[in-house]
């Protein structure tokens, strides 16, 4: 057993010969080495995904390339906060089971998906930068979506977590969140061009590999901004896998991670569009959240069930760094979600 919020600092393999996580906990970098060959579960149970979201105060785009074993989900979303309006288009692939060849490490390589005459999407990593290209024909009826976005990634801390599931120690969640990547580039949707300003706009990466149990519900929230002239970001979440060794709750300020303990999402039971609040066990993340739009999706096809509510809105409150510095958060555009999946 490891102490609460056990930080892992030494580089080593993720899984032992039994397919169990060798050292559960959290880290600031990808210290665990992932290899599909080490997994002691059927290929159709392995889940691998790269998810990017890039936000401004006026609009956002999100992209997913995933290989979830017996199904692949390749999607793009456009969200307009002014109207408000959102549209998501997803292409499903049966039984990819590793055929997409997603990289085993987030720091290099190319993640790509192509479907002739419909979708060409790729995420390319080079030193200090990430490049997102998406050409989605007939994304929304006769409207196409084209994106060419660059994200700056200087040397900085990230949030990495490796945790098992109590129900089966061969199931695990290995995940990295990279916040505060300054965004530049453009989106063309329905013939209208939208541009990113690296002085104010940021992208976030959700990179994950693992094997899950069948029925799970999680909460996740993330956002970035410039506060007192420096990049600020947060990642909060719980409800997924055994978090006794570590939480994924963390603040980033000027490239440095500030670890948090437990966070609780207070979501109104009768509507996701009513104001939320967030509270923390250590008093370091106390927020009010005013929703703008709920990007909801529900799929129920026998064995596969997903009920998603990714809510975008404005965060107000305080965040406290490790040294006690209090940052005032004012109208920070971000998202918080609750997702229930069976697959």
- H/E topology pattern: EEEEEEEEEEEEEEEEEEEEEEEE
Give the number of helices: 0
* CATH superfamily heading: AttH-like domain
Q: What does the average pLDDT come to?
A: 96
What's the β-strand tally? Answer: 24
Tell me about the largest β-sheet.
13 strands, antiparallel
What does this structure look like?
By secondary structure, the chain is mostly beta strands. It has one domain (12-342): AttH-like domain (AttH-like fold, Beta Barrel). 0% of the residues lie in helices and 63% in strands. It is built from no helices and 24 strands. The two termini are 29 Å apart.
SSE order and pairing:
Elements: E1 12-13, E2 25-27, E3 32-33, E4 46-55, E5 59-67, E6 71-80, E7 85-94, E8 109-115, E9 119-126, E10 129-140, E11 143-152, E12 159-165, E13 168-189, E14 192-196, E15 202-211, E16 215-227, E17 230-238, E18 250-253, E19 256-259, E20 263-266, E21 276-280, E22 285-301, E23 304-320, E24 326-342
């Amino acid at each position: 057993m490891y102490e609460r919020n056990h930080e892992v600092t030494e580089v080593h393999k993720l899984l032992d010969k039994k397919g169990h996580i060798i050292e559960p906990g959290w880290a600031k970098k990808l210290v665990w080495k992932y290899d599909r060959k080490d997994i002691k579960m059927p290929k159709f149970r392995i889940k691998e995904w790269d998810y990017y979201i890039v936000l401004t105060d006026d609009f956002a785009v999100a992209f997913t390339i995933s290989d979830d074993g017996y199904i692949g989900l390749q999607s793009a979303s456009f969200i307009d906060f002014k109207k408000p309006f959102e549209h998501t288009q997803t292409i499903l692939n049966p039984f990819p089971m590793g055929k997409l060849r997603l990289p085993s490490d987030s720091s290099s390589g190319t993640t790509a998906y192509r479907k002739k005459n419909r979708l060409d999407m790729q995420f390319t990593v080079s030193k200090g930068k990430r490049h997102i290209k998406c050409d989605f024909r007939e994304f929304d009826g006769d409207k196409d979506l084209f994106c060419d976005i660059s994200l700056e990634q200087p040397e900085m801390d990230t949030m990495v977590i490796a945790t098992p599931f109590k129900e089966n120690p061969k199931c695990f969640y290995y995940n990295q969140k990279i916040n505060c990547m300054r965004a530049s580039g453009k989106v063309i949707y329905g013939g209208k061009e939208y541009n990113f300003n690296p002085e104010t706009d940021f992208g976030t990466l959700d990179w994950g590999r693992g094997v899950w149990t069948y029925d799970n519900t999680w909460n996740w929230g993330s956002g970035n901004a410039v506060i007192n002239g420096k990049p600020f970001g947060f990642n909060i979440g719980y409800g997924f896998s055994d978090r006794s060794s570590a939480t994924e709750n963390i603040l980033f300020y000027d490239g440095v991670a500030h670890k948090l303990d437990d966070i609780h999402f207070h979501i109104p039971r009768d509507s996701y569009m009513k104001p939320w609040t967030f509270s923390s066990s250590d008093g370091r993340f106390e927020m009010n959240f005013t929703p703008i739009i709920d990007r909801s999706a529900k799929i129920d096809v026998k064995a596969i069930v997903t009920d998603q509510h990714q809510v975008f809105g404005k965060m107000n409150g305080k965040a406290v760094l490790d040294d006690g510095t209090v940052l005032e958060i004012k109208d920070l555009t971000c998202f918080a979600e609750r997702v229930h999946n069976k697959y």
